[in-house]
DNA sequence: AACGGAGTCAACCGCATTAAT
DNA sequence: AATTAATGCGGTTGACTCCGT
């Protein structure tokens, strides 16, 4: 498509031919350099001709001189871009050939969003073209629920990267970039997971990454002002919600800077993993700590709060491995039939690879980063006896606080009640239905059926003491004894819950509340917290 | 035919890097 | 060494087109 040949241009063209466009021309905007108002918007053929003529005379470069010497009212950047993308000779126009597409895929699997570098392999193409193609392709495949890379490309890229460790075909940055966060969208290629699933022990990732323990990630990466050591250097704070803003939060959306996480053993990072969630009621729901929106929530799954209505940012997320129907859920949890209504998750889950995370507290199943993170977080939590009172304000029963004699909620959840779409392996529904200890007893204790629909829910003991010596505090949370009441209430609809969760998830929970037989007070809400719900519950005062 | 959503593409913007002074 | 300008790069935006309803 060319914007240089159209009706509006024709009108402009005649104007150009007579004189350069007047400032009040629609495509002129306010930017000015040295008192000269520069034009923006589509180029006209006249402008193209001027630019081409200029380049013929003076060669490429010194683009800022174009405006001065040729009278073209375009900034240097615009001239350069126009020349590079449209005017320079030997440009290959038209659709990408099959070979080119294949090459782009392979290159992307190897080097990520290095469009300019890809150009070297695709003569006649521009980085912009490649980028557009890729972005379009991403959307298309995401919509179709297809993996971003064909499996063979995964393997090929994997091998290539392993070789590149030695051959330096791609620098380490690229490798890291490649392995961790593909492209702008923080996409993680399938082969990471494939490989992870395949190895579970053998190092298949670049050493620089495989050596990253969750602890180190938490304490050095997430919890230090060094920022995210495993993030690509090219990552900029995204404008839209995405996984990493959602996950590690606070980068750019008004949340506390990472420095604030340095203390307290990354409590705030640990929290989302079920350890605690001292949520401070905030009327601004959208400022919910994104890291609280992780486990089992759709927000985690697609980096957004919406369940099946991803905000635009969601488009950028993709975890190809989880798009495979045959996904070996060993890395996420055991396979089990998708849960009703909650499984229709946007298929983009992502998680840094952790195939060979070595730590002192390797997760029981070694099933994936989240599990490992969780497990390690448990360790961190358990060793941190002085968990702040603040965190105790949460009514979360963190995994790490679950008595050792008690089946580990998280672990068991992943292993036995795996939600194919949840890194935890247990969806919110599964938590509700399976891990809602009645009357605060063991997780193993079968839920009492009498707690189903009635109101005879045993209230949580007000003075309940928790393993760490602290007391749960109801604080400002809603005094709903039952989440089913909560979800089914008008309040739930009338408050921001629905907004926060998205209509779909909202209805999911309502459905859940109506159908589950294991709801009880306290623990249920804990589960809610654990699944990102408590933040919702806590943030509003009783109506 | 009108409308709306999705796809495509060109161009812009902001930041990073490099070169020049 | 510090500053400024030029350039490169990647992400995003907005206009346009296509297509289905």
TrEMBL record:
Sorted keywords for this record are: Activator, DNA-binding, Nucleus, Repeat, Transcription, Transcription regulation
What cellular-component terms does GO give this entry? nucleus
List, alphabetically, the SMART domains matched: SANT
Q: Which residues form the Myb-like domain?
A: 38-87, 88-138
Might you name a Gene Ontology BP term for this protein? pollen development
Q: What is its main location?
A: nucleus
Q: Which Pfam families match?
A: Myb_DNA-binding
- List where in the cell it is found: Nucleus
- Example GO molecular function: DNA binding
Domain HTH myb-type spans what residues?
35-87, 88-142
Q: Which InterPro entries match?
A: Homeodomain-like_sf, Myb_dom, SANT/Myb
Q: What is this protein called?
A: Transcription factor GAMYB
Give the species.
Answer: Tetracentron sinense (Spur-leaf)
